[in-house]
Amino acid sequence: MVAEALQSGKPRLLLTAAVAADVDMMTGYDVPEMVNSLDFLNVMTYDFWYPSASGGETGTNSALYNRAGLLPPQSQYNTNWTAHAWHNRGFPKAKIVIGIEPYGHGWVLKNSSAIQPGSIGNTVAPAHHFSDEVGMAAYFEICEMLAAGATRYWQAEQKVPWLIIGKQWWSYDDVQSVKIKMAYIKANGFGGAMVWALDLDDFNGKCSNGGGKLYPIIATIAQELAGIII
């Protein structure tokens, strides 16, 4: 890439990798070689907890921190643990990019009065019209559920929301939790944030907690990290 840039007179292309947050998968990477070769390490700090892999237990999709009562490996299912695990394996913090997901995961509760994270779901939540995948909803579909009367809750330890609509339990990120994550990135000296995927953010301005903006998750990242208003 350096040779190509010199020949073309254009800026050198960046080389990045999207990598797992799972501790067992981390051991399969050649970290010293990656440090030497990559400009950034995009860590997929989401999908920590989702219906097909949870044994029916609800949990937060992209927690920032651990919560009381969780033991390994579940106590490792959070952004803080994962980002520092990659750093402890030799990756410079400035090259570590934190993943943000504009979507949520959902279960149908076995007992509608048991609503805290860790409650048991009988089955996977049904698919929505746009995302068309059971147990998954785009951020704007999350906002549609809130507009339809869902109740939003806040997990104070993990710094993320969840909602209840009927017997459905959904974990997701929103503007509030993303702002907290951006402050965390800056305070800890990490390299930045990346999003998977752009088309799952609210491209119609439906989300009231986004102030009516288009792409409120992406706009929050841009404003909090770079001072860019979009």
TrEMBL record:
Pfam families, per the entry: Glyco_hydro_18
InterPro entries cross-referenced by the UniProt entry: Chitinase_II/V-like_cat, Chitinase_insertion_sf, GH, Glyco_hydro18_cat, Glycosyl_Hydrlase_18
Matches recorded under SUPFAM superfamilies: (Trans)glycosidases, Chitinase insertion domain
GO MF annotation: an example: chitinase activity
PROSITE patterns, alphabetized: GH18_2 (PS51910)
Domain of life per record: Eukaryota
Coiled-coil intervals: none
GO biological process assignments: carbohydrate metabolic process; chitin catabolic process
Stretches assigned to the GH18 domain: 1-228
One Gene Ontology cellular component: extracellular region
Name of the protein described by the UniProt record: GH18 domain-containing protein
